[in-house]
Fold each of these.
Amino acid sequence: MGWSAADIPNQQGRIALITGANSGLGLETARALKRCGATVVLACRSPRKAERAKQELLQERDGGAVDLVGLDLADLTSVQKAAATVGERYGCLDLLINNAGVMAPPRRTTAQGHELQFGVNHLGHMALTQALMPLLQNRPDPRVVTVTSGAQYFGKIRWDDPSWSKGYDRYGAYGQSKLANVMFALELDARLREQGSPIRSLAAHPGIARTELQPTAIASVGNRFEALAYRLIDPLFQGAGMGALPQLHAATAATAQGGEHYGPEQFGGLRGAPALCRVAPAANQPAERQRLWSLSEQLIGG
């Protein structure tokens, strides 16, 4: 038996913000942390879905409190507003779990004109993390966990066209955003260590977990062959509760260290209990990580 939600240490007195917490991995992460006493802040784009998730969590009367914060990662103005709201409401934060994501839609852009997947999955989370960093700084054992996926291994950063304005490929852009997630997580940890900060930055991926991402991606283009492929591999999928374990381990396990990357331990990282796993080769190159950081800061600032 590997590490499970039963191994999460007491979280009483801790405040955890989870992006995209109204369903899937985010909701299961919020559920597990609440059961252990944490105050969970569901940062979601849809008020209706967020309220529904809150009521579902509150049906379990034991554990910590549940709060909502509006957050649209596709709009950097919304990101700054959400961070300000958390600061005004709590004045501190213990855990930030960058969980939300979009997967393989037709090409769309964010409010600031960035390709949607790169904008939401990477740029929005980077901007949110930077805005919330002062709230984490003076807390005991503060952590940032950024959720990536196995798509990082085939992802490439399009340095000359990160918004895919030419030759858009849905899954190519998704892979780029997931590679960017883990590059950001590792570079953030390196910078925090250099500053002597107590904050730890880690990455995690869920393997093949059954969430809304896959059906939403298929429905967005109506590709029957893609739908058939997903049906064929469906027996490999694990539930969202299992898929959430790597990010929960990264967020709470006493043994988890900054700069580490967790994913399922079985079937080449597809399913199972969380364990340390390799990152995409590009993420292990400091020069590439620093290049992405600089590019991202330009895009966020611009």
Amino acid sequence: MSSTGVLPLPEPIGEASPPTRSPTQTPSVAGRTWRSRSGEFLGVGGATLLLFPLAALLRGVIGLDTAELVVGFVTFHAAAVINDPHFSVTYLLFYRKARARLLGAEFGKLQRFRYAFAGVIVPVALAAWAVSAIVSRSAASLGLMMQLMFFLVGWHYVKQGFGVLVVLSARQGFSFNARERRLVLAHCFCAWLYARASPVDSGTEYFEQGVVFRSLPHPPGLEAATEAAFWLSTLGLGWALVSVWRRQRRLPPLSALAGFLVTVWLWVVYSSIDPVMVYLIPALHSVQYLYFVWLLKRNEARAEEGPPLFRRPAAVRVGALAVGAIGLGWLILHGAPAGFDKAFAIDDAVQAGDLGVTPFLAAFVTFVNLHHYFMDSVLWRRDNPETRFLSRDSDRIGA
């Protein structure tokens, strides 16, 4: 799952100008096999285009209710190795070398401030909010925190889609100028706001992770206004693509463009057109995220295998990261909240009231989602020196 103007927010990966190549440079991925290109296409969102007809076929064969039950069951258990690690691996990446990043020269002054904000101030504030809501037994307060999560998740998705477009394009020597990038980003933001404003909501009662709360109503006319902005921004997106075609005589790579459009249009704006796909979209988003984590850490590990560092083989380091992410994901989203609920929560549903019998589970899930969004907004900026490993595949240090 996964900001708005609450932060002077960031450019995640790709929002800053991508590296450019001279006409004589050959992109490091030019010789990739059809198999690797297909894997990339499917991993960054292309699989969605195959799953939609399969979901429709499943509904036709076994019926909607059974299809939702089957897919919901599979995705619930698959989350342990897909969704949960996509959250937890962010912690493993973000807090690595935390002291050096916060106090050393690895980051510039502005980036150190962003790092401190996302890594210290935000989690303290979120934890205080959650603890206050549980201690005061305020389902409304915890529900408001959940609504912030729902509001920001669309921002997180579209910014990741933007990163897919820019980074995968840059890896093949394709770049966007400043005006084109602004038009693409405008489309992202308009899509997010339109998706959040639709459908019209005068205040609905929700039951989420055991907590009962009422949503904040949308102002009258908000849906129509955001829809108009969305379609206007679509014209801007089209203009940007025409502009890059005129400059470079080609469009962005298929994986980059498909990943972007699938993310914005099918995962955010029209995510509810198929009730079965609703269960699959979070997993697809997580796979997309994990693909870039894999790309980053694999390339970094390959670069450090040889002289002068001679570190452990890339497969070992990436495998250790995967195991660590799975274990930490279980701890922060299952083990720890279950332990707190067992020790401190009211186990009688009537006495528990609107806060439910698993308030710590609700608090942990909400905290992890929100903190993930903020950490991402810092981690994937080009200010982070490690993001240079996304632009190439296996350069050795010192080469």
